[in-house]
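Propose amino acids for all 436 sites.
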């Protein structure tokens, strides 16, 4: 009994999870959290941060230590007498040194600035990947919600035509309708069944596409909580201007241009001389094999201890034109990045204005379609009453019914497009369109 109860509770929880309806924000949030492109952008950002840490480390001194051991046999120089001998000798050396670059033509400064720009570019690229993923999930959600609405309308149409067919057959029995009228209504019923099946197939394809964009398990069920926004309820943004300092896609191009600029300056630093300081100490220990009186280890380390301080000035003279070609490539990369930034700025400005115009247009169309749905609904009800009284044909009834169905579908599409375009406007204004 206990196992059976556990199984029942598990099945009930799974069924409850399967029946959970997903809102637009939940779909976008799930897509952003599970998208592979977003995860790759996160790893790329970590690489940029590691590069920045490395650029900071170039300002610190480098310290190294080394230990060496050498065994000489045969003819060699005796370190005590400085004369040749054939006695085998064991050498042991220790060295500790530190170096610090003092001047390198500001190469390290520009490398650090380029790394900082890279981090900002990585953050913007991550934001762009998240926003693009949310927008793709939003469009797939709107498509699935549209076909779900059409399936609902087609189902209502099937029920309506089935009821109409029963009424027509009854009217035929009492002599108020002919067999031709019954055949026409039967044809409408078959057409409604076909349309329902077609819309169900389209809905299944739309849900599959939504699952793919969300990286949702394809075998699991997904139900939508469709909230159709009414026309005129969207906020009034007041302007179609794009926020250039907040759009992630434009920021990526801007920081890429900035990083290329500092990389160009870093390449030019190779023309300047470089100055570095270094210091260190070393000591050795040696032992002549078969010697009866070797010096103690600590005594030799102390007596053989040596220290040094050095300054190195390196002046570039000729390196087979490598510096000139590097500077030329870096300058061209900066110019390419600047052209990309200006092109991206123009493209996004155009898309921002288009989204604004579409948003206003779909709002106006939605209000107009609301009036048309109301008028077509009245016309259909009057035509159906006339059909029942024998004043109109089944063809007239089918025509008004089709007009009403098309008007409802157009109204649903307009409302969903208002929702999509509103989110696009928010994106071009630099706002977060999904719940983090």
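Proposal:
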């Amino acid at each position: 009994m206990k196992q059976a109860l556990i199984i029942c509770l598990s099945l009930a929880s799974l069924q409850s999870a399967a029946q959970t309806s997903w809102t637009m924000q939940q779909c976008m949030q799930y897509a952003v959290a599970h998208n592979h492109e977003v995860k790759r952008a996160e790893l790329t950002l970590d690489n940029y941060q590691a590069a920045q840490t490395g650029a900071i480390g170039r300002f610190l001194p480098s310290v190294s230590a080394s230990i060496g051991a050498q065994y000489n046999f045969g003819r060699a120089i005796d370190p005590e007498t400085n004369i040749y001998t054939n006695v085998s000798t064991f050498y042991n050396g220790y060295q500790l040194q530190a170096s610090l670059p003092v001047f390198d033509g500001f190469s390290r400064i520009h490398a650090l600035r380029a790394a900082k720009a890279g981090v900002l570019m990585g953050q913007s690229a991550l934001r762009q990947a998240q926003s693009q993923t949310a927008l793709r999930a939003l469009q797939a959600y709107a498509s699935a919600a549209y076909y779900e609405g059409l399936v609902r309308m087609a189902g209502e149409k099937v029920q309506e035509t089935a009821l109409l067919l029963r009424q027509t057959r009854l009217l035929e029995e009492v002599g108020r309708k002919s067999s031709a009228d019954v055949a026409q209504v039967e044809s409408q019923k078959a057409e409604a069944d076909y349309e329902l099946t077609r819309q169900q197939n389209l809905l299944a394809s739309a849900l599959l596409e939504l699952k793919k964009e969300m990286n949702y398990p394809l075998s699991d069920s997904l139900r939508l909580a469709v909230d159709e926004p009414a026309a005129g309820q969207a906020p009034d943004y007041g302007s179609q201007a794009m926020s250039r300092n907040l759009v992630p896609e434009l920021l990526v191009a801007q920081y890429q241009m900035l990083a290329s600029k500092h990389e160009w300056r870093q390449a030019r630093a190779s023309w300047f001389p470089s100055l570095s300081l270094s210091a260190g100490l070393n000591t050795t220990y040696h032992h002549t094999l078969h010697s009866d009186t070797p010096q103690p280890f600590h005594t030799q380390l102390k007596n053989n201890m040596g220290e040094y301080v050095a300054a190195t000035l390196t002046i570039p003279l000729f390196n087979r034109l490598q510096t000139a070609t590097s500077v030329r490539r870096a300058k061209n990369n900066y110019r390419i990045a600047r052209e990309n930034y200006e092109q991206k700025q123009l493209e996004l400005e155009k898309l921002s204005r288009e989204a604004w115009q579409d948003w206003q247009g779909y709002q106006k169309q939605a209000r107009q379609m609301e009036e048309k749905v109301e008028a077509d609904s009245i016309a259909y009800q009057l035509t159906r009453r006339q059909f029942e009284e024998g004043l109109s044909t089944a063809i007239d009834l089918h025509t008004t019914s089709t007009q009403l169905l098309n008007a409802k579908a157009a109204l649903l599409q307009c409302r969903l497009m208002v929702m999509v375009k509103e989110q696009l406007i928010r994106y071009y204004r630099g706002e977060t369109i999904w719940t983090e």
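The longest helix spans residues 107-173. Confidence is low (pLDDT under 50) at residues 1-19, 230-234.
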